Amino acid sequence: MNKKIGMFAGAVVLAGVVGTGIYHAEAASSNEGEPQIVEAGSLNMEDATKKLEEEYQGKVKEMELDREGDKSFYEAEIIVENQEYDVKMDAESGEVVYEEIDDKDRHDDDVNLEENQQDTAAANENNDNKENIIAQEEAIQIAKQEFDGDVTEMELDYDDGRYVYELELVNGQQEADFDIHAETGDILSLEIDYEDD
């Protein structure tokens, strides 16, 4: 009888040891497959703008930071000799992952085409040519003097007879929208919002 109890107790102990070993082996192997959090420096908007302008030998008209899953991308519109490129750049590596030549002007209806021609004529009449425009980096520095944040959107727009940089900066849950005169560098408007989650 004692022999049977001893064998039974030995089997229970052995099962416990084997079971514990299997559990630890499974736990260790499951940790190996888990994604590790890696902090990598990403391009800021100023560096991304410089890189794209050098690569395309053109002027960035609009840029915004976009997130897709766990990756970040800059989406930009670049003007190169009267041609517009839509570009998507990996915000970590700086690699252009998508490029399209925008030919939407060819498909515009007569009303939009006429409006574009009127805007161009108005710009020429007012001697507002793009050679007098301050660099995007300068507009960003002007905005950052008023609000310390990361630039998430930037666009050069022709509005009310003048070129205007429209910028969006984010710092934590605060968001600032700027309109900056693209020739004088004057801040035309500044709006700061507190974003609730």
Automatic annotation (TrEMBL):
The keyword Lipid metabolism does not apply. Residues 43-99, 134-189 form the PepSY domain. InterPro entries: PepSY. It comes from the Bacteria. Residues 113-146 form a coiled coil. Pfam families: PepSY. Keywords: Coiled coil. This is Peptidase propeptide and YPEB domain protein. It comes from Oceanobacillus oncorhynchi.
